[in-house]
């Protein structure tokens, strides 16, 4: 039979997964920043359309990851509020 | 090496090092968390963060798509400057990233780790139901493990499946706590996608579902007599990128997906004739034999 402790533990287990996801997102953003710098240095002065597309895609990826992180923070807050009132 | 070759090598390295693996890890972690929370809140009107996690997963998917577009753009540029030999897509390292990250991101073993242990009996009870193997009597053996992380657990389960030893699979699954066991759901998708691709000889497609089902269903069922067919169907659909079926299938118990996915990994490895050690992220790429691999055994 389920207990409050068990529900809380299940939510905690889910939040542990979210924490790992957040760490992966942060690591991805760091690598992405390095890639953007590397690309900018290598392709400085290029007017090729593909170069512009690559830069735009990397910026888009970084923005999506930032929004992803924000959404996970909201999710964690909501889950913690729920377990606090159990 | 000419200047243009040097530029090409640098761009190729930048493309290969884009964090597609980390983003894939993040997506699977978020999906796994969502699955668990959905199970917890099934009859509650309180969302407990599930919609926000859904949004987060969509953002991560968009980031992954943007990274692929960036890789395509770099490949197009390389082709445009006459380096088409350097322009092919890099091999997917997602499965390596998934297996690499589990060990270093485990929550610290301190006071905060006490709460998830309450899920121990819940996990063990479900594992017993799925495998038909009762949990060990001693607390030391049940849920206390030997410090194995999820990637190591996956290798052990796969090895047990490969040996056809259901009791060993049951023992290995019983030996970890719920948190490590449930994380199998997050670790396995890129691994399964890769193994299925190797078995089929091409990227898994929706029309490959019957073939994969024929190759795996019997053995999964024999290792997990307590699992429902819908769980395996859902996993195979995901591997083959079949569009979601919506509300056709009821949400499965989170442990079912995690356990079945790990056993399916072992079954696919067995079909490919590979050892569980090939799941080590540091292991070299196994040789692919498309002609043989394409034949269901």
Largest sheet of chain A: none
Class by alpha and beta content of chain B = mainly alpha
Largest interface: A-B, 58 and 60 residues
CATH architecture of chain A: Orthogonal Bundle
Shape type of chain A: rod-shaped
β-strand number of chain B? 0
Order of H and E elements of chain B: HHHHHHHHHHHHH
Report the top-level CATH class of chain A: Mainly Alpha
- Mean pLDDT rating of chain A: 92
Quaternary organisation: heterodimer
Beta strands of chain A, count? 0
Low-confidence segments of chain B, given as residue ranges, are: 102-117, 291-297
Share in helix of chain A? over 70%
The figure for the number of domains of chain A is 1
Short description:
The complex is a heterodimer of chains A (about 90) and B (about 300). Chain A is an all-alpha fold and about 90 residues long.
Describe the protein's architecture and organization.
- By secondary structure, chain A is mainly alpha-helical.
- Chain A contains two helices and no strands.
- Chain A has helices at residues 4-42, 49-84.
- Chain B has two domains: 1-90; 92-103 and 117-297, no CATH class.
- Chain B has 13 helices and no strands.
- The model of chain B is unreliable at 102-117 and 291-297 (pLDDT under 50).
- The longest helix of chain B has 31 residues, at 50-80.
- The termini of chain B are far apart.
- With 297 residues, chain B is mostly helical.
- Classes of the chains: A mainly alpha (86), B mainly alpha (297).
- At the A-B interface, helix 1 and helix 2 of A face helix 1, helix 2, helix 3 and helix 8 of B.
């Amino acid at each position: 039979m389920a207990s409050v402790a068990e529900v809380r533990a299940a939510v905690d287990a889910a939040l542990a997964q979210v924490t790992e996801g957040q760490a992966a997102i942060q690591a991805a953003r760091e690598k992405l920043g390095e890639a953007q710098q590397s690309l900018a240095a290598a392709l400085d002065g290029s007017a090729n359309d593909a170069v512009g597309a690559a830069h735009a895609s990397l910026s888009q990826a970084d923005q999506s990851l930032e929004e992803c992180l924000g959404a996970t923070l909201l999710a964690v807050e909501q889950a913690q509020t729920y377990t606090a009132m159990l | 090496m000419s200047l243009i070759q040097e530029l090409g090598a640098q761009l190729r390295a930048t493309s290969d090092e884009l964090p597609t693996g980390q983003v894939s890890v993040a997506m699977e972690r978020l999906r796994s968390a969502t699955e668990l929370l959905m199970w917890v809140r099934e009859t509650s009107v309180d969302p407990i963060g599930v919609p926000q996690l859904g949004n987060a997963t969509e953002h991560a998917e968009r980031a992954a798509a943007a990274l692929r577009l960036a890789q395509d753009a770099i490949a197009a540029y390389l082709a445009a400057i006459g380096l088409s030999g350097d322009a092919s897509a890099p091999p997917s390292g997602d499965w390596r990233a998934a297996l690499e990250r589990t060990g270093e991101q485990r929550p610290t073993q301190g006071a905060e780790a006490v709460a998830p242990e309450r899920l121990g009996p819940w996990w063990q009870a479900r594992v017993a139901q799925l495998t038909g193997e009762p949990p060990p009597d001693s607390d030391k053996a049940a849920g206390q493990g030997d410090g194995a992380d999820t990637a190591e657990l996956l290798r052990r389960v796969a090895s047990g499946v490969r040996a056809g030893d259901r009791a060993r699979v049951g023992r290995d699954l019983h030996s970890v706590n719920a948190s490590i066991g449930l994380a199998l759901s997050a670790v396995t998708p890129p691994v399964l996608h890769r193994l299925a691709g190797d078995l089929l000889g091409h990227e898994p497609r929706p029309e490959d579902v019957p073939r994969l089902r024929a190759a795996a269903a019997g053995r999964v069922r024999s290792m997990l007599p307590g699992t429902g067919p819908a769980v395996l169907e859902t996993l195979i659909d995901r591997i083959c990128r079949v569009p979601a079926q919506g509300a056709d299938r009821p949400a499965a118990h989170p442990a079912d997906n995690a356990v079945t996915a790990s056993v399916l990994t072992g079954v696919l490895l067995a079909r490919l004739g590979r050892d569980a050690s090939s799941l080590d992220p540091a292991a070299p790429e196994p040789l692919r034999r498309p002609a043989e691999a394409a034949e269901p055994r």
